[in-house]
Amino acid sequence: MGNVTRGTTNPNRMRRLDRWLTGTQAWRLRRAADPLVVDLGYGASPATAVELFERLSAVRTDVRLAGIEIEPERVRAAKALERAGLSFHVGGFEIPVPGQPVIVRAFNVLRQYEEADVEAIWALVRGRLGPGGLFIDGTCDEIGRRVTWVALDAGGPLSLGISMRFGGFALPSEIAERLPKALIHRNVPGERIHGFLQALDKAWLDAAPLAAFGNRQRWTAMCRSMLDGGWPVQDGPSRWRLGELTVGWDAVAPA
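Now predict its structure.
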C-alpha cells in the first residue's frame, strides 16, 4: 500500500533522528522480544537504511532491519547490500515482513501524500507495532541540518521532535518549512504549532545575551525558558545541547 515517492536521499541525512533513537529510545530496542526495525520508504539509495542498521547494531547486536520500498527496482538494487540482520523488501505501509517491529522509521515519505491521508496511514502502521513499539514520521532538508519528526506508539502521537544545526538558522521557526505533513499546513494563527513556533522565537531572542558563549548555551536557555513557561518540553540539557527539542504532542496537535 502506498505511492512511489521521489526517492531523493543523501548519505548521513538521517543522522539527527538516528542519534535521538539510539539515545532516548534505545530502551525500546533493548527490551524488545523481537528486535525488528523497519525503514519504510528508504528511497532510491539504501544508504540511510544501512546507516540505521549499523547505528542500532551498537545498541543491540541482534537487531534485524528490513528496508521496505514500493518501487521494485530500488529493492533489486539494494539486495547486493544484504547481510545477516539486514534485508530489503518490496512493499508499503502494510509492512509485508513477518513479526511486529519495535521501530518503524518513515522519513520524507508522508510529506509526499495529502494531509487527509495521514491519519489512516498512521493508524495502519501503528497497528503493526510490537509491544513498546515506536513509529517515526519525519521530514528533513536535503543534507539533514533541519529535521522534524512525530513519534507515535500504538495509542497515537506522543511528541514532536526538532533538531537543527547551530549556525544554520536565524530563528528556530525556520524549521516550519520542514514540519511533518500533519503540521506543515497548520502553521497559521489559531493553530497550536504556530503558537509553539512563535514562543520558540521569543525564547530564542530573549536568550540573545548568551550568544557570546555560543549557540549551544543559547539554545539550552531557550529550551529551559520554554519548559519554565509551561510548554511540555521533554528530555533535558544533555539533549538540548545537541540542538534538539522534543515537546508533547498535545501542545502542537492540529486544532
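Strands lie at 36-40, 64-69, 86-90, 103-107, 134-140, 146-153, 156-164, 244-248.
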